[in-house]
Amino acid sequence: MTPSCPSCQAPFTPGAETCGRCGASLLVAAAPGAVDPVCAVHPEWLSVATCPRCGAFACARCLRRGHEGAVCATCFEREPLAPLPWDQREELGTLKAFWRTCFGMLMRPTELLRGVNPDAPVGSSMLFVFLSAIAGFLTTGLVYTAVMGLIMGLAPETDTNGADPKTVKLWMMVGMATWMVLMPVFSTGMTLVTAGLDHLILRIGGVERGFSVTMRAHAISQAPYIVGVIPFIAVYAAPFWAMGLRVVTYRTLHRTSWGTAVAGALLAPVLSCCLCGGVYGAIMFAAIKSSGQG
Ligand SMILES: [Zn+2]
Ligand SMILES: [Zn+2]
Ligand SMILES: [Zn+2]
Fold this sequence. Notes:
mainly alpha, 4 strands, binds zinc ion
């Protein structure tokens, strides 16, 4: 919530004591006997905002710029939040904020995460996942498309089983394009599901913070997908890198033990991997068997 000038209602940046628009003092003396809320620290001044962390009424002199907006001085000093570049999208621009967060997560994750606001709206985390997925899949998808196109171009036309080779080529292209568009959407949706599973495990491990914290930790741990800009590498290496980072983000943002963080980050993927591996194996087995018959 942005605080606003008591005289002209223009929003102001915490730290200011006079209004940038009308020039009036933001410190307004409380009229004796009036019912307007006054600052919890300075009862002589009217409150201009309530602290989102502790709910206290605060005057302009007490407001500090925390990451969730204007917070009171007491809360700010207790835990001065370092800004995560991703939260500075307005100042930096979305792509720059994304790139800086990724870079920080890859190069110095513990330093980057120290003191950041553990919570963020789920939507903000989902946008981060979406961008990571684009970075991770797009380049590889393009290279696959080019390779497929090349193979199709070189392949003898009898390979198409009598169908019009042009139609087949067209459908292949449509398929690849759909894959490139749908993959990031699918990946974002999957993150919601896997973060939900992880959150369940973290809760069992005694974590108290909400799902949006798990979601944020899960999202920023996907930073390694940015190396997907280099084709192929990300698709194979990034998931493992991300899983390692997830242990760190869960531990830091939830302030929990290594044990709980490891369980939260690895238990669901390992179990689902065993399950998927089994299903995949079964499909392969069936495919080999049926091709043997045919
Ligand atoms: Zn004003
Ligand atoms: Zn406060
Ligand atoms: Zn005050």
